[in-house]
Amino acid sequence: STGYPFQEVEAKWQAFWEENNTFKTPERNPEKEKKYVLDMFPYPSGAGLHVGHPEGYTASDAMSRYWRMKGYDVLHPMGWDSFGLPAEQFAINTGAQPAETTAKNIANFKRQLKMLGFSYDWDREIATTDVDYVKWTQWIFLQLYKKGLAEQSSVSVNWCPALGTVLANEEVINGLSERGDHPVKRLPLRQWILKITDYADRLEAGLDGLDWPSGTMTSQQQWIGKSEGCNADFEVDGLDGEKITVFTTRADTLMGVTYVTLAPEHPLVSAVTTDDQRAEVDEYVEKTSSRSDLDRTSAKEKTGVFTGGYAIHPISGEKVPIWVGDYVLGSYGTGAVMAVPAHDDRDFEFAQKFGLEVKTVVKPKKEGTEVPEDAAFTAPGVAVNSGEFDGLNTNKAKKAITYKLKEMGKGGPKITYKLRDWVFSRQRYWGEPIPIYFPVDFPEGVNPEDVDPKDEGCEHEIRYDQPIPVDEADLPLELPVMEDFRPGDDPAGCLARAKDWRYFQKDGKWFARETNTMPQWAGSCWYYFRYTDPKNSEAAFSSKADEDWMPVDLYIGGAEHAVLHLLYARFWHQVLYDAGVTKHPEPFQKLVHQGMILGTDGEKMSKSRGNVINPDDVVDEQGADALRLYEMFMGPLEAVKPWQTSQVAGVSRFQTKLYNVVKTAAANNVEEMSEETTKILHKTMKKVTEDMENMSFNTAISAMMVLTNHLQSLKENVPREAAEKLALMVSPIAPHLGEECWSLLGHDDTLAYEPWVEYDEELCIDTTMKMGVQVNGKVRGEIEIPKDADQEKAMEAAMKEERVAAQVDGKDIKKIIFVPGRILNIVAK
Ligand code: ANZ
């Protein structure tokens, strides 16, 4: 046997595919079905590809190649998520312009992806930073704006001084930025927000019918946080017409309310506070204003203060004290709760601390069990001390009390969501400019013709309350080139320093552009659409392209995007659906997350641990197919698994063996195939086909290894047909090897569009079976016999088994128990 010249072979086939445009996306053939196979596109970071990238990319490539061979029209594109903090930080660190470093990083990523032989249609390559692309991202923003889904708001935001930007709630973990672990403060700032909450219900409902990992579905559901309950109105004693509305999921406990708690930012706090209590309340509100929601909800000790005011219970008419406490969040529900310390843990703690009344209104269903004294009883039960509702079980009481409130005009059923609106502006340079501008006002008597707001000291006011959308015909609005684009402490963002860009005159009037940019998520919200029609200059994509290719049939990427990217993208998609731009209600039909590849030490790969495997090195030493085969062989695609360099050598040997087996077949041209080989071949074709359908690549490779070993055992008599099928089967995962083998067997075109192998079910049926053999009740061996073998045949085979024969040797066989198809037991004394 000879070595496999992977370097030559891989270079040759990559050149062939490129020259022949092998993977150009076909014009859709209405007679055929289509598959749109999408990878989560990478951030072209300065570090280049790591071995985690090729895992998902090989899986999607294998499926694309498999589906082409199965006769589908396939769209399999690639591009770059090239805006955003990492790209900008890299430019800052290297003292270059982001546009330059981004271009360089893209070139390097592209070289690496090409070196791995992925069957992308590179004519459809896009980068989110391309002006052609930015134009349409801005266009979509304008559609959101025109529908009232993008608006300005002074919101308490997560301001990260170290990064010089505002972060989305999703980007803050335990009070630190998701990227870089920098401290994050809460501040009120003018921001652009996207009203994703308007779509909460749709985003929840749309999950139904998607073929997604259940964990990801659950994460999205929890993030949306649909909560079904009831609103109840408490009038404020002494304040005519003012009422505190609370949201509760336990309307059944209404008769157990002993106080009401407002969030410190609730608009009625000041009005309900008495003069006696004002100083204390003001101090408390001030002190809690800088705490994040997470701090507030996870605090060990409850804090709060009495306002001096009272609320009137909507049913009993009793007066209950109004407190302020920061365990109540201003941004959830109505920012106020009816406190039921007997049945809610947080209310119980709060009541214990401040000596407030506890009133039991739910008892356990089981006779004789009492509610605990030292804790809240939170389980369902039966209503007590609740007047007309006594005796109702929790569910019935919820309904009855909710209905009663509704009847009284003091509340009723209510659905609340945890989802918050999406803070969409960033103060950084490397993002899409938001296509909005504002009029500029000057002091009374100043003629705008005579002044220039760019001048130092020129007094003027930007009228943020009068936003004007950029004319669609004027898109794209490009970023200005800036020498110094580092973030600063001006919350208007670093673009505020690009004065020539920011201020402009039209019809004798001055205007100022919005200086916030879009977050990195913007570009990844719709890139899958653009791939369907990447060069369109009239529209983001045509309706024909949408009809031809959408939705994405298979989307592969990391589980870290379970909530953020996948929720934002679904939101934009649903907005575009409502606008009639797409006919498909959801973008990603099937979603698969590849499992993380860990270092050999079982730890996450990282520079600081020094356990990073560089795909360039692996390809240099073993070849692209070896890397592809290995990453698919490591284990199930979704599993987390450690890198094992020795196993790369193992698949590399398989590769060489397969190559030599095919070479032998090509040289000897053996037509004949034994019954045994025929059966093994058909069983392998069946197994590999089923495994490809299930994306179970590791077991497909195992099956091909078994077949290859069998063919190798035939020495010079490798049947040509078996070699051909093997070349076809291996090609989705190891395409260079597949092509080379195909060509060795005398074909002079690519196998990329050869029909996938077909097997004969009849030939896959096992006619023999394995059976355990016991001697005196202990298993001593295993025999392989025809399924319909009788006792005599089974005994004959058993006596050929050394260990069985040894146990019986010199003894008398007293009894043979033979259960056909199950077991052979020999009793010997
Ligand atoms: C009275 C009550 C009695 C409650 C009881 C629970 C148990 P989810 O499921 O998360 O929606 N709540 C409402 N708004 C709040 C806010 N802004 N900040 C903090 N807590 C708030 O939870 C809804 C429950 O959380 C509501 O039901 C309310 O407390 C509280 F035995 O009302 B409950």
UniProtKB/TrEMBL annotation:
Task: Name the top EC class.
Answer: ligase
- EC number(s) stated in the UniProt entry for this protein: 6.1.1.4
> What range(s) does the Leucyl-tRNA synthetase editing domain occupy?
222-405
Which residue ranges does UniProt annotate as crossing the membrane? none
One example GO MF annotation: ATP binding
Show the catalytic activity.
tRNA(Leu) + L-leucine + ATP = L-leucyl-tRNA(Leu) + AMP + diphosphate
Q: Name one GO biological process term.
A: leucyl-tRNA aminoacylation
Q: Domain of life here?
A: Eukaryota
Q: Pfam families annotated for this entry? A: Anticodon_1, tRNA-synt_1_2, tRNA-synt_1g
List the InterPro entries hit by this protein, alphabetically.
aa-tRNA-synth_I_CS, Leu-tRNA-ligase, Leu_tRNA-synth_edit, M/V/L/I-tRNA-synth_anticd-bd, Methionyl/Leucyl_tRNA_Synth, Rossmann-like_a/b/a_fold, tRNAsynth_Ia_anticodon-bd, Val/Leu/Ile-tRNA-synth_edit
Any Gene Ontology CC annotation: mitochondrion
Q: Which residues form the Methionyl/Valyl/Leucyl/Isoleucyl-tRNA synthetase anticodon-binding domain?
A: 680-792
Q: Which UniProt keywords apply?
A: Aminoacyl-tRNA synthetase, ATP-binding, Cytoplasm, Ligase, Nucleotide-binding, Protein biosynthesis, Signal
User: Which protein family is named in the record?
Assistant: Belongs to the class-I aminoacyl-tRNA synthetase family.
Instruction: Note the PANTHER family from the entry.
Output: LEUCINE--TRNA LIGASE, MITOCHONDRIAL, LEUCYL-TRNA SYNTHETASE
What the entry lists under HAMAP family is as follows:
Leu_tRNA_synth_B (MF_00049_B)
- This chain belongs to the protein called leucine--tRNA ligase
